[in-house]
Design goal:
The chain has about 230 residues and is of the alpha+beta class. It is about 35% helix and about 15% strand. It has a 5-stranded antiparallel beta sheet.
Amino acid sequence: MRFRRVQRWVGSALVALLLLLTGIAPDIATAEAADSGRLLPYLAKLQPSDLVPGADRFGTPTPNSPTVPVYKGEAVVGHAYLTSDFVNTTGYSGRPIDVVVGLTADGTVTGARLMDHHEPIVLIGIPPARIAGFINGYVGKNVLTLATQSAASPPVDIVSGATVTVMVIGDSIIRSGKKVMQSLGKAGPDSAPTIVKSVDLSKTAVEDWTTLIGDGSVRRLTLTVGR
């Protein structure tokens, strides 16, 4: 037990040192009690204006909610958060896709950055710029409005070959954004719509292996040696 406490203390100290060296406001580093996991180390790699245009500093983590206010001068102009802190963001790699998002008080996305992922098709076949372009497509859109729309019609064009990955990212931005608004008292209780899935029997095209992996049609291949 004592060893674990030492581990946590060392981890917090390293995060604080990283934040100070990268110029993030010291008040983030001292807010250990409200630490929101991976969010603070990710913010250490970003500028406030990356998430909210015109912002100049990050504030202290919000109590009881893994969000961080973003300031322009003395005014709060938005909140930063990590999608994975609010919803399941697991892709077909089986690991989380971490996106840090900037959100205004009315629920409008002002910025979003992909911070970490382990999606094979993106790592080896899809240019990062295309994924970044997809994510940037949510900037200017309101998560509360998007949450009321059908999931069958994504508000941003899908990236061919990485369908599952970008759909997970888009869905996580919307659902986590709504939960952030709820945690800040800006939205009512969650009432998720019923999702109906169906098979499109009109699709008859033959796809290559890379495409099938990218859109999630094939999740796993097991080869055995027969006798």
